[in-house]
Specification:
Elements: H1 4-23, H2 33-43, H3 79-82, H4 90-98, H5 100-103, H6 117-127
Helix pairs in contact: 2-6, 4-6
Length: 131
């Protein structure tokens, strides 16, 4: 039977499903690459270059999205990172930028992490443009 109560319960269920889905979206889903360039400049550029083939204290960030960890030529990676088996998907980058030492114990990156989920989403959107 289709009573007003049934309609209200269906609406609540639908809103709960939609609302739940919004909360489970990855942080990088709504990133702004232009803002991410600023995040990169502030948080990453001291150690990482966005240019292909230009390593600094850390490896080049060029082409990082989709790249297997520890594979940039001419960069001396930590054993922990080389053995990690990581491929830098947006989700893995998000986790790593949040807490590098937790994701790669024994890694040498001297960065404590970026707590701001929106800034990480913007950063990941920017990194995706480095191709």
């Amino acid at each position: 039977m289709n009573t007003p109560i049934d309609a209200i319960l269906r609406l609540i269920l639908l809103l709960g499903l939609v609302g739940g889905g919004v909360h489970t979206l990855p942080a990088h889903a709504a990133g702004d690459a232009a803002k991410g360039a600023d995040v990169f400049a502030e948080e990453c550029a001291e150690c990482h270059s966005p240019k292909e083939g230009k390593n600094k204290k850390g490896p080049s960030a060029f082409g990082v999205v989709g790249r297997k960890a520890g594979t940039v030529a001419d960069f001396n990676y930590s054993d922990g990172l080389k053995a990690s088996g990581i491929t830098w998907s947006p989700d893995k980058i998000d986790a790593y930028v949040t807490a590098p030492k937790k994701v790669v114990p024994g890694g040498r990156m001297k960065y404590e992490g970026l707590e701001d989920a929106k800034a990480r989403a913007d950063l990941i959107a920017y990194l995706a443009t480095l191709r």
